[in-house]
Design brief:
Blueprint lengths: L1 H12 L4 H34 L3 H32 L2 H28 L3 H32 L4 H29 L3 H26 L9 H25 L1 H32 L16
C-alpha cells in the first residue's frame, strides 16, 4: 500500500510534457488578450454613450459597454481556474491587481453610464434653443408691435410705453442669453451666480410688464396679454431648463470619463499587459526558446 501511494504521488508530480505546457500557456495568453479587448470595447462604448446626442443612442452604447464588461467577467473566471495549474506567484499577484482594478472599473462605469443615458444637459439645450427661444421671440414681437403704435403719435404716454416695452424686451433677451452658459457650467457656485443674475432680469421683465398693464390706453390692446402669456410660458420653460441643467448629467459623465475612468482603465490595461508578458516568458521544460535576433 505504501508503494502504491508513493507511485501515485510521483505520477501526479510528474511534469507535463512540453506540448501540454505550450497549449496551456497559449490558452492563458489568449484569455488575457480577450480580456484586454473586452475592456477596450467596454471603454469605447462608454465614451460613445457619453458623447451620443440622443437618449436612444446613449442607451444603445451603454448596453454595449455592459455586454463587454460581462464578457470580461466570464473570461476572468476562466483565467482564474487555469492560472493556478501552471502560473507563477507573480502572475497570481498581477491577476489580483487587475481584478481589484476591474472592480473599480465596474463601479465607475455604473455611475457614469447611469448619468450618460439621462442627457439632461442636451435636453436643457434643446429646450433653450427650441421652445424657450420661440416663445420669447413671440413675446418680443408682441412688445415690438406695442411700442411701434405710439411712435407714430409721440406723447408722454407713448414714450412711457416705448420705454417699458423695450425694458421688458431687453431684460428677457438677457435672461435667455444666461441659460446656455448655465447649462455648460460645472460649478454649483457659478450656477448660483448666474441664477441670481437671471432673477434680477426676471424682476425687470415683470416690473415693465406690470407698468404696461397699468396704462389705461393699453387695456384693450391684444398685444399686451400676448406678451404677458408668452413670458409666463417662457418662465415655466426656464424653470425646467434650470432644473435639467442642475442635474448636469452630461457634464458630470464626461468629467468622470476623462478623469476617474481613464485612470482605472490604464491600471487595468497595465496589469493585463504585465500578466501577458509574464505568461509568455514562462520557461517550458525541454524547450529552449530564445528571443529573435534582429537582422543587421
Amino acid at each position: 500500500m505504501l508503494l502504491a501511494v508513493i507511485l501515485l504521488v510521483l505520477h501526479f508530480r510528474e511534469p507535463q510534457n512540453p506540448a501540454a505546457q505550450l497549449a496551456l500557456k497559449a490558452k492563458r495568453v489568449e484569455l488575457v488578450d480577450r480580456i484586454r479587448l473586452a475592456v477596450a470595447l467596454a471603454s469605447e462604448a462608454e465614451k460613445s454613450s457619453v458623447m451620443a446626442i440622443t437618449d436612444e443612442d446613449s442607451r444603445t452604447f451603454a448596453n454595449q459597454a455592459r455586454t463587454a464588461t460581462a464578457a470580461v467577467e466570464q473570461e476572468l473566471r476562466e483565467l482564474e481556474t487555469l492560472l493556478p495549474l501552471a502560473g507563477t506567484r507573480n502572475e497570481a499577484d498581477l491577476l489580483t491587481q487587475f481584478s481589484r482594478a476591474f472592480v473599480e472599473f465596474q463601479r465607475v462605469d455604473k455611475d457614469l453610464l447611469d448619468l450618460a443615458v439621462k442627457n439632461t444637459n442636451l435636453k436643457a439645450y434643446s429646450l433653450t434653443f427650441g421652445p424657450a427661444a420661440t416663445t420669447l421671440a413671440e413675446m418680443d414681437a408682441a412688445l415690438s408691435r406695442l411700442a411701434a403704435a405710439p411712435a407714430n403719435a409721440p406723447s408722454a404716454t407713448g414714450f412711457e410705453v416705448l420705454q417699458l416695452a423695450d425694458g421688458a424686451r431687453i431684460a428677457a433677451l438677457r435672461l435667455l442669453t444666461l441659460l446656455p452658459p448655465h447649462i455648460a457650467e460645472e460649478s454649483d457656485q457659478k450656477m448660483d451666480e448666474m441664477e441670481a443674475a437671471m432673477a434680477k432680469e426676471d424682476q425687470a421683465v415683470r416690473q415693465n410688464l406690470a407698468g404696461l398693464a397699468a396704462i389705461p390706453t393699453l387695456r384693450t390692446n391684444s398685444d399686451l396679454p400676448t406678451a404677458t402669456a408668452g413670458y409666463t410660458r417662457f418662465s415655466e420653460l426656464k424653470a425646467q431648463i434650470v432644473k435639467l441643467s442642475r442635474e448636469n448629467t452630461n457634464v458630470r459623465s464626461l468629467t468622470i470619463s476623462l478623469n476617474q475612468k481613464r485612470k482605472v482603465m490604464l491600471v487595468c490595461q497595465d496589469a493585463l499587459a504585465n500578466l501577458e508578458r509574464a505568461i509568455q516568458e514562462e520557461p517550458v521544460e525541454g524547450l529552449s526558446i530564445r528571443a529573435p535576433v534582429s537582422p543587421r
